[in-house]
Every structure is written in C-alpha cells, then in structure tokens.
Amino acid sequence: MRKNPVLENEMKRYTRNMKCAWIILGVNLVLALFALIAQMGLSGRENYMTILQYRFPIQCYVLMGYGLFLAICILIPGLAGGSIAGERERKTLDLLLTTHLSPWKIILGKLESSLCLIFLISFSTLPVIGLVLIYGGITLVNLFQLILSLVITGIFIGSIGIFYSAIMRKTTVAVILSYVTVVLLVLGTVGILFGIGYIQQIRGMYREDFTGIRLGGLVYLLYFNPAVTLYGLIGQQTTNAYGLVRLCGHFGDYSHSFGVEHMVELSILVQLGCSALLLIAAGRHIHPMRK
Amino acid sequence: MLKIESLTRRYPHVTALDGLNMEIGHGQLYGFVGPNGAGKTTTIRIISGLLRPTSGKVWIDGIRAEKETRVLKSKIGYVPDFFGVYDNLTVMEYLEFYSAAYGIDEKEGRLRASEVLERVQLFHIKDRMVDELSRGMQQRLCLARALIHRPQLLVMDEPASGLDPGARRIFKEVLRSLCEEGYTVLISSHILSDLADMCSNIGVIHQGKMVLEGPIDEIMTSIDSSNPILIEVYQNLETAVHLLNRHPLVSRIAIDKNMISILFTGSREEEAQLLRQLVEQKVLVTSFRREHNNLESVFFHLTDPVQGGTTV
User: Fold this and answer.
1) Contacts of residue B74 in chain A, CB cutoff 8 Å?
2) Are B49 and A91 an interchain contact pair (Cβ–Cβ within 8 Å)?
3) What does the alpha-carbon distance between residue A40 and residue A37 come to, in Å, rounded to a whole number?
4) Which residues of A touch B88 (CB under 8 A)?
5) Contact A290/B52, CB-based, under 8 Å?
6) pLDDT tens, B3-25?
7) Can you give the pLDDT at residue B309?
8) Using CB atoms, which residue from B49, B50, B101 is nearest to A101?
9) Residue A156: which pLDDT band, with cuts at 50, 70 and 90?
10) In angstroms, what CA-CA distances link A36 with A29, A40, A146, A165, A200?
11) What pLDDT is attached to residue B312?
C-alpha cells in the first residue's frame, strides 16, 4: 500500500521538532512518577514477610490510563486544530489541492499524523506501563484494550480538531474551538446531567410523589464523552465492573438498560460515527470544486 | 492548449468574471494583464482547478477541465503569487513530497527533483532548509515544484512580485528557456515591462472581460497606427502647415513651436509619400516619426476609465 505523502511529510516535520521530544519526555516522566509513587506504596513498609498491596499497581495502571487520556486531550486538539488551518495560513493548502491528492486524502493524512503521535507516546510509555504486569491483575490484553481505547479517543478528538481546522481560517480560532469542544464533551456532558439532576431533586423536595431523579434518554449524552468510555473500560478491567451503571444510577434507574450496560462499546461506535461525519464535512469544506 | 469560453464567476456582491473568452496556443508565453480586481487571479484559480466557475467552459489540450480534474492536474503546473513554506524540510525533501503528492514513485521523484532543481539553477542548495531561502530562490523553487510532474501548461499568478531585479532576470531566463522547450506559459503580472520583453501574446482583462487579446507585436503596431505623427520642422513651417491642411488623410493638426502633431490615417507607404511631399515643397524637416506606445500606455488606455477606453 502506498504511504500517504501528507502523513510522511507531517511525521518528518514533527519528529525533527524538539517539541516532539519534549512531549515524549514529559509524558514519560509523569507516568514514571506515578509508577514510582505506586512502587513506594507497594513496598513502603516492607520486610520479607509483608503482604504486597496489589491495589497499588492497579491504581498505578488506572492513573497512567487517565494520564495518557489527559495527554491526548491536551495534545491532539492543538495538533489537529492547526492541521488544515495551518496549511491555509502557510498558503500550502492550494498547492496540495492542485496535486493528485484528494481533499479526503489530505484530511486522512492529517488525522493519521495525529494518531501516529499517540502511538509514539503510547509505545514510548509501554516500559513504564508494563511495570504493572509484574504484579499481575492487569494482562497484556487489558493493556492492548487501553491503547486501542486511547487511539479511538485520539480519532474522535482529532476529527473534532480537523473539522474546526477546515472550517476556520485562523489556526488560533480552530485550536480554541477544539479545546472548548473537548472540555464540553468531557466535563460538559457530565455537568449537564448532574445539573439537571440537581434541579429535579430541588423541585422534587416540594413534591410528595417524587421518587428520584429520572433523566431518561438524556443519559445517552455520555456516549459522546470519551472520558466516560475510558472510565467504563478501566472499570471493566479492574474491580469497578459496574462503575458506569453506578455513575448512571445518579440520573435514574438504568440497572437493566442495554444502552448503559454496553455503554463502552456503544459509545465507541457513536464516537467513531461522529468522527466519520466530521471528517466528511471537513473534506467537503476544503474541496475546491464546492467553492 | 487552453481555451476558455464565456467564463463567469459571481460572488454574492460582485461579478469577478463576466463571460471571459481566451485562447492560448501550444508553446505560447501569454501575458495576462489587468488592474487589481479585474479577475486575473479568479481566472487562474479556475484554470488550476481551485475554484468552480458559475458558468462557462475551460478546455485544456482539448479536455473539459471541470469534468476531468485528475487529467487537468497532470497537465497544469500552478505557481501562485506566494510561496508556501514548510519548516524542517530541505529543498530536496520539499520537492520529493510534491512528487509523491503527484503519485510519482520515490526513485523517479528523486530523479525529477534533481532535474528541475538544475533547470531553475538551485541544485547547489538542495540540502538547505526551505524556510532559510531568499525570496527569489523560494520563487524559483516554487517553479521547480510546479514542473515536477512535467505539466504542459504553466499557470503563474504574479510570480515576479516582490523580487529584486536580479532575481527577476534569472526568473525571466528560466521562463524563456521553458518556452523554447515547448512549455505553454500563462503569466499574470503587474510588471508590464517584463511581460513586454518575454511574452509572445497578451490578453488584457478589465472588469471580468477580455478587452484586448492577440500577439504582442500586432497589438503594438495596431495601436501605434492610431497615434499622431510628430513632424519637427526647421524652416518653412507655414508651407508645411498649408500642405498638411489640404492633405485628405490628415484629420487634425496641432502646432507647438517647431513641432507639428498630426492625426494621419494612411498606411506606412502613404506616410513616406507625405514626407516626400513636404521635402519637395522645400520644407526642411529634422524629424518625422509616429509616436510609439509601450505596453504600459496600452494598459492604461484600455483600463483607465478617465482616459477613456474600455471598448476596443
């Protein structure tokens, strides 16, 4: 299969940039710090008869998972938000569009280059994350699932960034909008549900027939929240298997709801679907024959 | 090579192109001139496949451009009035990237990159970073990029703007050599003296319409023939004026000291006969010449509403 020239070009430019090296170093240092803290918790009061505290490596894995997620939320909007708008500002977008590259291929090249950065960071952190495998409780399959989930998050957040980058003329505006959208998805969706739930509860205090908060279908807003997907996945992998059902329990009774029980899988599908739509919209927007 | 028929492009509040017609033959170096906002860039962007026309047709080498965009892209090399720089890329890598973007394989791309760098006299800086080059070098690199897929038609939008005279001279040399090799070049520019030196044909666009088009020599001659003849008389001015007043081909006479300016509608031969008649009448003539135009005066004549002419 032919390599996408846009991907190759972007990777060449990223990896020559000192920023890339600093990012990898920074992420690894933070994760190593988590690992160190966990290790100290594990063997802080040791003697050879000490019973190892297995919850520490598990907590370390959970922390590292969220740490990588946070790194993606911080890095990808900045990269993807500047991808097409940056080409436009450099005045290279027109030059690319006069070549045999289709707008879709340009868009995909940009997304792939953002994903490559996630892969690069994820694989560079494997030795640190792999430490938890020594103590058991987390398997290689779990690790693979975690990375896959982070890649999907990267696709979703990257698509949001690329969409804004395609429709906005200025990189700064596209990047700001990307960050705002990510914050709205991660914190806003949960915030909205808790806010509405709180209002229902306040109103219910004055009603005798109030039986609890019921948000109904609104809870499916969480499908758009990649943090909830990760929370559900890590919950399934560790001890907190019913974490999502418990979280949704704040908004009503979803104990037998298929949509909540399979929220991880369904939210991944929804996020991938949204990504596809955003990328199609971005491609259509930069297509010269539609201007 | 390029044929444009009734090309129109409308924006919500302005009509950029209003039924533009244009034809460029194989191997021509065609100068495309017009004031700012006349529609030059819009035309070039439509030809390059970067903009959709509201109506009208564009053929490139007999192929309808709007229908066969991939073929169109193979046949056209586009040089804009700016230079898009990627940081952290060398000159060679920059060209290899664009050759890959045209679907040329890696080995062939490297060969072609060397070839076009030689052509634009930049091979010696192939390992320099693109963003460190001077503007003149960047513009030549941009030309090299446009040649990497061996197009038949080069479309250049104000390529020499912002270049110093030395860089402009090298750029002109490269363009001339390209035309000698059979490339067809469409070049828009504000530097009319440069175009007059280089181009075989020109087209003047004004308010989205082509107001004048043809071989540059013919255009200059046809416009020259409507210019006044200036006669400088050393002696016998009155006799000269008397003769000119009676001449059927002289329509207007203006006198300033020893200089007589006349509007003469005859041919070159009739001009010569008029001079002989003056000499036979014992008028001592020190100079007899038709006032010449340059491309700049033609341009202003056609596009300046105060001077009058948008209708040719």
Assistant:
1) 100
2) no
3) 5
4) 12-13, 16-17
5) yes
6) 888 889 988 888 888 888 898 88
7) 39
8) B101
9) very high
10) 10, 6, 21, 39, 44
11) 30
Per-residue pLDDT of B252-261, as tens digits, reads 888 888 889 8
Q: Give the minimum alpha-carbon distance from B264 to chain A in angstroms, rounded to a whole number.
A: 51
Question: CB A288 to CB B102 under 8 A?
Answer: no
Query: Do residues B288 and B229 touch, judged by C-beta distance below 8 A?
Result: yes
The residue extents of the domains of chain A are 5-39+53-286
Contact state of B49 with A9 under an 8 Å Cβ cutoff:
no
The reply to whether residue A289 touches residue B82, judged by beta carbons under 8 angstroms, is: no
Would you state the pLDDT for residue A134? 76
Closest residue, chain A, to B100 (C-alpha): A5
Q: What is the pLDDT of residues B186-196, one digit of tens each?
A: 998 776 777 77
Domains of chain B, by residue range, sit at 2-214, 228-291
Alpha-carbon separation of residue B212 from A77, A219, B21, B25, B225 (angstroms): 51, 68, 11, 16, 16
| Average pLDDT of the segment spanning B36-62 | 88
Maximum separation of any 2 CA atoms in chain B, in Å: 80
If 0-12 CB within 10 Å is exposed, 13-18 middle and 19+ buried, where does residue A78 land? middle
Whether residues B86 and A9 touch (CB distance < 8 A) is answered with yes
Nearest CA in chain A to B102: A100
Which residues in chain B are closer than 8 Å to A96, comparing Cβ atoms? 101
* Chain A residues lying within 8 Å of B83, measured CB to CB: 91
- Domain B228-291 annotated CATH 3.30.413.10: no
Q: DSSP readout, B122-140?
A: -GGGTTSBGGGS-HHHHHH
d(CA B282, CA B236): 7
- Partners of A9 on chain B (C-beta within 8 Å) are 86, 89, 97
Q: Are A173 and A181 in contact (CB under 8 A)?
A: no
Query: Do the beta carbons of residue B133 and residue B141 sit within 8 Å?
Result: yes
B chain contacts of residue A91, beta-carbon cutoff 8 Å: 80, 82-84
Residue A21 has a pLDDT of: 87
Least confident of A41-45, A253-257, B84-88, B253-257: A41-45
Please judge whether B48 and A98 are an interchain contact, meaning their C-beta atoms are less than 8 angstroms apart: yes
Helix (H, G, I), strand (E, B) or coil at A231: helix
Q: Do A289 and B66 touch (CB under 8 A)?
A: yes
Is B103 in contact with A100 (Cβ distance < 8 A)? yes
B77, B149 Cβ separation under 8 angstroms: yes
* Closest residue in B to A9 (Cα–Cα): B97
Q: Residue B312: helix, strand or coil by DSSP?
A: coil
Mean pLDDT to the nearest integer, B253-272: 85
Confidence of residue A105 (pLDDT cuts 50, 70, 90): very high
CATH 3.40.50.10860 fits B2-214, yes or no: no
DSSP one-letter string for A54-93: THHHHHHHHHHHHHHHHHHHHHHHHHHHTHHHHHHHHT-H
CA B15 – CA B213 distance, rounded (Å): 21
B93 close contact with A: CB closer than 8 A = yes
